[in-house]
Amino acid sequence: MEGQNLIEIKGYYQGTTNTRHLSLVYSVKNRKFVKGFLDGSSTHGYIRYRLFPGKYIKIYYDYWNKADPPNKVEVSLISIEEDGKEKELKSVCVHFYNCEFLKRFPPQLMDLYEKRPGYHRKPAVHLLFTKQYTEEENENLLKIFDGPKIYREGEEHD
Known about the structure:
- By secondary structure, the protein is mostly beta strands.
- It contains three helices and nine strands.
- It has a single domain, classed as Immunoglobulin-like (Sandwich), CATH 2.60.40.
- The radius of gyration is 15 Å and the shape is globular.
């Protein structure tokens, strides 16, 4: 885009004994995860993005073995401002014990979960960067912000 500068933001990954983290950026406009560049070791590091200002979705996976439930996926609608600041507009959390519960949500969440880092392994996110989602899958991801702010396995809503 003419006149706009690329803004660098960071995602994060970690795959250690008791914790797993993965943060990716999703482009609503292009219906796919934005290609990022992994920078770090096999246990932790950053995923660097160069983005034009605009609205994106950040999807963050978190596992801590002492939490109840231990798995969490947070989906945030963010705005990348011209000055390089990242602003959260809306957010939804999904807390779960196993991936069967996660299958009730848009497939982007499950895809991120399946590519999460393992024990001392980098996440397999490169497999997500080429996958483009359908218009319907894209719309369903946006609709997640219309419901409850927190979904918890065992506390299902009608």
